[in-house]
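Worked example 3. Consider a protein that binds nicotinamide-adenine-dinucleotide.
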Amino acid sequence: MRAMTYRGPYRVRVVDKPLPAIEHPRDAIVRVTRACICGSDLHLYHGLVPDTRVGQTFGHEFVGIVEEVGAQVRELRPGDRVLVPFNIACGECYFCRKGLHANCHNANPNATALGAAFGYSHTAGGYDGGQAEYVRVPYADVGPTKIPSSLDDDNALMCTDAYPTGYQAAEMAGIRRGDSVVVFGAGPIGLFAARCAWFMGAGRVLVVDEYDYRLEFARRFAQCETLNFRDVSDPVWLLKKESDWLGWDAAIDAAGCEARGSAMQRLLGVRLKLLSGAATPLHWAIDAVRKGGVVSIVGVYGPTLNAIPIGTAMNKGVTLRMGQASVKRNLSRCIEHIEAGHIDPKEIITHRIPLEDIGDGYHLFSSKLDGCIKPIIQPDGARA
Ligand code: NAD
Ligand code: ZN
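Given these inputs, the predicted complex is written out as structure tokens:
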């Protein structure tokens, strides 16, 4: 089969790989019809995720058709159209039973803090991902979900990560009716978080980024206010001014470890790798929320230390909530909002790229070129 493979930082290539096979009776093999590149893949692409091995196939957002199932798979049959959440989870451990599929204790032999994900380095289990024609899906009765007829493939694809992650970001922000919410990052995750903040009763939503095209899209897609942090010398000062100097009820970090906006954070966290990434939006979020406010973190950070103002958070009495999304937990809620016509997630898709040209997709998305918000990948055989 044809599959994207990692060759080293900023280098990906499509190569022939052996077809994946059932390795365990709970596995399924899925023929991929659509996959995405995610902001999280960019951390891999930029060489920032520990133990990202040459030859791995990335891709944790994909939908497809079940090709084959193992002897113990009960819920799926060959021919089923499925959306596959990015988490690989056993469904039975202490954490899965609490709905923390992102922290499954069994699926990732290489780490205890983190569960497993498709195509996300050996730190996240070493499983090959879905930027390929076929993929092996472990615990096939736990994550994969038959796509209801109300969902087209594009919307189903958005339900594998970006939309439920944005939803969970808003949920973790503890929004109450009328609350003000500031979202850092106008990528797919921030856009969905901003949109979902309204579902939860927000009274005011503002999105911060440095790309005007993304902020313009945010105004349309999430009917929110926007701020380009490059337009002001101190974004936190402006955010405080905008909130009668009290601060925002909730702040969401949907940018993560490669954030811009502080030369010092970039130097220490991205260039020299002395910290695990640049935590600038997290810094801003802690400063911009009111005393007793909530900071919700879905932007990804690595395992080592970060320069964040924990003392400010402590003294302000800020609640910090965070995590990799556990997609399955909110999936039916997310689908209900689509069915009710509250959201059409596929609106954020800006590019459709053949698998063979996936290198261009990574470059476009990484460099924020050509108005790129969300690129999706289609294997050749699936493009008709
Ligand atoms: P993206 O790269 O498209 O978007 C990130 C946006 O943040 C960019 O538009 C960038 O300009 C903006 N940004 C950079 N610095 C900023 C700052 N200081 N303030 C405000 N905005 C800033 O990526 P995405 O797909 O939207 O993903 C965003 C983050 O969410 C990534 O870190 C990704 O790894 C993470 N993520 C987490 C989960 C999860 O389960 N928790 C799931 C998917 C993605
Ligand atoms: Zn993702």
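Take a moment to read the result before moving on. The longest helix spans residues 327-339. The pocket of zinc ion (ligand 2) is lined by residues 38, 40, 60-61, 86, 161 (CB under 6 Å).
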